[in-house]
């Protein structure tokens, strides 16, 4: 049966419509695919290396995968340069970072410099939230509680006739001053005599501080290797703890008259030193969670969700036997 001219026109028109619909759908003009937005977020730390941020970065990477974030991890060129850190922070935001995470080198100086800056993106502070409008969230430990926690542990395990020697990059670095004040209060109350040594001294009046890295290292050796073995050594920050532990582990008298070493923070290397018996006790926190939350809060700030808040992570005092406990294994050796 032959089609009429009208039928042919109708079928041709239908075929044309189908072709047109196909072309429109294939070019996203009708069925638009939802595009996933990628958020560029910069993390600016207060060190020239990220060696001490392994677990933190694992948490960052996990959150970045889940929240479609492109992370730029920024280290300093010059150690101890607060001005450079804040310039890098400003540069990252000016270059397009939708949010920034700051690990302040010296919290007071960073806060002061921020007073004179205008940031066009939200800021997450790894520590106590700064006053003012720049920071949306702070993620920290309870620094007073961590110092008190370690001081009480030292007092439980040692007699007050033993001198306590405290080593630090400097009280102005990070939140060392807050930790030291509560540590000192706990030890003084228990009758201990405390002596402070700073690698980079900054106005610590009356403290017998080391003036240079060589002097600092020499002071560690004199007390960790050549001392009586009765000394109690404490490192306020992970950098100093790493250095003191290396000196003790490399000592020719290691294992004989080794002083008790305590500290704050943890890395795989430091935990291995504890497992070997070089380090007696540590106060640490969940760095994986810290890294993860930094990205979560940054994304919330970008999307204008959530309120300005301060997150306080739990701190733990651990010794060698705790390394094998399941709950601490998950904190200290997180799986990506």
Automatic annotation (TrEMBL):
Its main location: other. One of its GO terms (molecular function) is carbohydrate binding. SUPFAM superfamilies: Periplasmic binding protein-like I. Signal peptide: none annotated. Residues 41-303 form the Periplasmic binding protein domain. It is found in: Cell envelope. Pfam families: Peripla_BP_4. InterPro entries: Bact_Solute-Bind_Prot2, Peripla_BP_I, SBP_2_dom. It comes from the Bacteria. One of its GO terms (cellular component) is outer membrane-bounded periplasmic space. Belongs to the bacterial solute-binding protein 2 family. PANTHER family: ABC TRANSPORTER PERIPLASMIC-BINDING PROTEIN YPHF, D-XYLOSE-BINDING PERIPLASMIC PROTEIN. This is Periplasmic binding protein domain-containing protein. It comes from Hungatella hathewayi.
């Amino acid at each position: 049966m032959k089609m009429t001219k009208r039928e042919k026109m109708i079928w041709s028109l239908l075929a044309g419509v189908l072709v047109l619909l196909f072309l429109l759908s294939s070019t996203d003009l009708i069925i638009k695919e939802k595009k996933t937005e990628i958020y560029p977020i910069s993390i600016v730390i207060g060190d020239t290396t990220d060696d001490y941020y392994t677990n933190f970065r694992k948490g960052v990477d996990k959150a970045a995968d889940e929240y479609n974030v492109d992370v730029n991890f920024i280290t300093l060129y010059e150690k101890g340069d607060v001005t450079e850190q804040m310039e890098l922070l400003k540069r990252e935001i000016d270059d397009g970072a939708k949010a920034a995470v700051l690990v302040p080198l010296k919290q007071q100086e960073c806060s002061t410099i921020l007073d004179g800056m205008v940031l066009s993106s939200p800021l997450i502070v790894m520590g106590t939230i700064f006053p003012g409008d720049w920071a949306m969230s702070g993620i920290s430990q309870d620094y007073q509680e961590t110092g008190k926690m370690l001081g009480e542990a030292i007092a439980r395990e040692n007699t007050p006739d033993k001198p306590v020697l405290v080593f630090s990059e400097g009280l102005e670095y990070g939140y060392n001053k807050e930790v030291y004040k509560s540590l000192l209060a706990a030890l003084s109350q228990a009758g201990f005599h405390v002596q402070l040594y700073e690698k980079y001294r900054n106005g610590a009046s009356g403290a017998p501080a080391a003036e240079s890295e060589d002097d600092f290292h020499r002071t560690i050796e004199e007390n960790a290797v050549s001392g009586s073995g009765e000394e109690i050594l404490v490192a306020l920050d992970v950098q100093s703890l790493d250095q003191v532990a290396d000196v003790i582990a490399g000592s020719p008298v290691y294992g004989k008259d080794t002083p008790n070493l305590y500290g704050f923070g943890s890395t795989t290397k430091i935990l291995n030193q504890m497992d070997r018996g070089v380090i007696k006790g540590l106060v640490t926190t969940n760095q994986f969670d810290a890294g993860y939350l930094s990205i979560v809060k940054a994304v919330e700030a970008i999307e204008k969700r959530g309120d300005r808040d301060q997150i306080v992570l739990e701190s733990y005092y651990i010794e060698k036997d705790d390394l094998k406990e399941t709950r601490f294994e998950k904190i200290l050796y997180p799986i990506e």
